[in-house]
Amino acid sequence: MIISKPKVTTLFSISIFLVLAFGALIYGLLNITESDSKTGWYILIYTSGPIGIVVLLKVLTGLKYMRIGKEKFDLKMPFRFSRLRFDAKDIEKWSHSSIKTYGGQYEEVTWRLKSGKEFGLSKQENTDFDKVLRYMKKKLKKLEA
Fold first, then answer.
1. Residue 60: left (phi > 0), alpha (psi -120 to 50), or beta?
2. What DSSP string runs through 111-126?
3. Tens digits of per-residue pLDDT, 5-29?
């Protein structure tokens, strides 16, 4: 059984960003009444708040937990309140993409189901990515795009 979940380092770095964004929002809200020129404070409040909220929603809706075993797949997205269970026979195709970036190699496995749904897991954001890739190459090589 392979269980792929979000990496702790990814969640930690995003948490630090969110603390800074919401901290700037709260700091701006507390200090705007005491200043003579409010323009800078309005810019701080109206940029840090929405950016923090958008990033928070994007991260939470993007969290995926995947269990793979015996050609059965279970994809759970807790903040979308959805769970997708499917068998290997329900996969139309899958692909592995690798892109060389300045910071290193970005890798992702993408699945496309016969129902038309498409989703992926990336190496940078999820644990056990190498096990998932090996499993897909071993068991479902013929469906690789």
1. alpha
2. EEETTS-EEEEETTTB
3. 999 998 899 999 999 999 999 999 9
